[in-house]
Amino acid sequence: MARAEDGRIVFVEGALAGETVSVEMIKVDKRWSRARVVRVLDASPERVPIPCTHQIEGCGGCDLLHVAADAQLRMKSSMVVDQLGRAEVDAPDAALRTLDNDQGRTTVRAAIVDGRAGYRIRGSHDIVVPEVCEAVDPIAEQLLIDGRFGDAKEVTIRVGNRTGERLVMVEGSTFGIELPDDVLLVGTEELAKGKRAWIHEEAGGRRWRVSARSFFQNRPAGVDALVEEVGGMVEEYGTDGALVDAYAGIGIFAGTVGVGRSVYAIERGKDSSADARVNLDEGDVKIIKSSVERWRATPAAVVIADPAREGLGKDGVSTLLRAEPDLFVLVSCDPSAFAKDAARLIAGGMSLARMTVVDMFPGTSHVETVGAFIR
Questions:
Q1: DSSP 92
Q2: How far apart are CA 362 and CA 359, in angstroms?
Q3: Distance between CA atoms of residues 123 and 117, nearest Å
Q4: CATH superfamily of this structure's domain 2-47
Q5: What is the pLDDT of residues 66-109, one digit of tens each?
Q6: How is domain 69-101+219-374 classified at the CATH fold level?
Q7: With a threshold of 0.85, does the pTM exceed it?
Q8: Topology of domain 107-211, per CATH?
Q9: Between the CA atoms of 237, 242, 244 and 248, what dihedral angle is there, to the nearest 10 degrees?
Q10: What's the CA dihedral at 350, 304, 356, 89 to 10 degrees?
Q11: Running DSSP on this structure, what letter comes out for residue 72?
Q12: In what order do the strands lie in the sheet containing 107-113?
């Protein structure tokens, strides 16, 4: 962030704190503007050469490749701290966590141009067709690079890193698509008519069914890290009693941290809740197909919530606090939403005892935060 001579704030894409850069203006507003770096005149010591030619071409997939890896995580932590400060939340120092044995993203969404899969250029509808992509799992990369997708409009590639299973979901026609024989191919129109398609993945110490349209974290190493972080918080601060897994998805926390407890798993998505019924069939779990806001709260010792990017919101916090938990673990993929929800939880009688910033999306500015709130 810089300030122009007329006092206007300028958000500079691709610049680091303390640098002197030459920029081109992208958008000019009365009070603020956006700009993009053209040339770095005085570089930060945290700047490194971008290793991906496609990112240099404009691919919008990995926007922090110009930042040293250790500095990326510190930068992400500072984003969380800044947002908590703006929300007037008194927070402990954040622990920083990288991923172990990470092989890259296992779910990839791409646009199609001339039968090839590619990524959209930042701020444009144009598409970069990669010849290599080290950000994704190798068995997904093969399909991204070598797959031929006919007249389809978009493609989602989903693979099991630890099972080797692969699935491709396309929007539009499946005619003329060329993929290896082991790949399960399905169209969105078929899914809308009731067809089911899934793969399996192993993460968090067990095996999961993951349907084509279900939510699953972007890599199994990320699931491992989240399960360990959330589990550690429950072990340290949790009390005996029931557990609520809100926004449960396919049942990750219910099927790991919740083992040995009575669990209420709340999930409104049709595909994710169907997977959860398969994944959690051996536990003491009641699956509630509902939005969190419409759930009739039941007393619980622990609440774990992993909402979408917009966060819990006022209604989500209010509903879940009616369970009167001793521990509330919030998993968030947006620093602003985390801070706003933290302020709401504190106003509801909780305090932020511990938090961890997890590098779930290396090379990108996406931030994952896990916080433990106690009474």
A1: P
A2: 6
A3: 18
A4: Nucleic acid-binding proteins (2.40.50.140)
A5: 999 999 999 999 999 999 999 999 999 999 999 999 999 999 99
A6: Rossmann fold (3.40.50)
A7: yes
A8: OB fold (Dihydrolipoamide Acetyltransferase, E2P) (2.40.50)
A9: 110
A10: -30
A11: H
A12: 127-128, 116-120, 107-113, 154-159, 166-171, 184-187
